[in-house]
Amino acid sequence: MPPTALARTSHSTIVSAPGSGADRLHPTVVPPPVGRFHAGRRVDNRPESLPQWRVSSTSSEVAIAVGRLLGGTAAVGDQTAEVLTTSHVVRVILDGPHSISTEMRLWGPKGVLHHCDGARFLTPAKVQGTPCGCPDSAKERVALAKVLRAPQPETTVTFRLADHYSLGWFEFSSPSRMLADEAGDIRTKLSSVVGEALCELSLDLVTVTVAGSADVSFRRPRLNVIGPWS
Ligand SMILES: [Zn+2]
């Protein structure tokens, strides 16, 4: 039986269904995630990226099941459990284009100064839906971020595990600009898939040359849409 304790105790997230206005009157209720995927961890209060997925959950059953699928031994605490897996790639099922979303936030000393989806304000309510003034292209956004403080992206992906569908929904949130810039294309590909889509979520090693100096390698999250899940 899939663990549902978290689902019973947490808030549900309501996601507007894609498509017509009539669809939006009947939103799809997505249960809260049973676990979260992470591309790093904190060591001595400092962030450290990881070459393989780390998965946290409030359910020891979920962490143990993930360890069986992706390798690694679950560490079970009083309230939380986590597993440092041995996998950098996982097959996942997404339920459509609404399963990946990007929000941009610029923080000030008193809280959020700018909160948008890259084109329109998401909050506060009085300006919600109006153009926010952020640049259209990824190139322009990077240029702006270099000269002044610009909103930072956070991309959230909601998915099931293809090899353990009934375990429940998982979530992965990332500040990666690369993933944020690709999110629109990913949503377009998901729109062309009828029903749920089989995808691959991976931590890919990339190497870039910084201003003619030494090569810098880092891991970046990538989501590849493979095709319909049937
Ligand atoms: Zn904006």
Quick structural gist:
Residues 1-30 are annotated as: Disordered. With 230 residues, the chain is of the alpha+beta class.
Please characterize this protein's 3D structure:
This protein folds into two domains: about 5-100 and about 155-230, no CATH class; about 100-155, no CATH class. The longest helix has 15 residues, at about 175-190. It is α+β, with helices and mostly antiparallel strands and about 230 residues long. The chain contains five helices and 14 strands. A hairpin with a 2-residue loop joins strand 3 (about 35-45) and strand 4. It is globular. The strands form two sheets. Strands 3, 4, 5, 6, 7, 8, 9, 10, 11, 12, 13 and 14 form a twelve-stranded mixed beta sheet that branches. Helices cover about 20% and strands about 45% of the residues. The protein has helices at about 5-10, 20-25, 60-70, 140-145, 175-190, and strands at about 15, 30, 35-45, 45-55, 75, 80-85, 90-95, 100-110, 110-115, 120-125, 150-160, 170-175, 195-210, 215-230. Mean pLDDT is about 85; it is low at about 1-25. The protein binds zinc ion (ZN). Zinc ion binds near residues 104, 116, 132 and 134. Zinc ion (ZN) binds near residues 104, 114, 132, 134 and 151. Pfam families: Gp3-like.
